[in-house]
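Quick illustration, no need to memorize.
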Amino acid sequence: MFGESLKSSTYRLQVKEIKIKLILYNLSGMMKSFFVLIILEEFT
């Protein structure tokens, strides 16, 4: 989903790329749980 391999060549850029992927992963997980909560609220 977010790409498994690192495309950066230097260590500093790899760390930055990992941080960005982690933030995107956390945001997508929060959005999924938020949508599930909205669906549960509508059906109850």
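Residues 8 and 14 are 5 Å apart (CA to CA).
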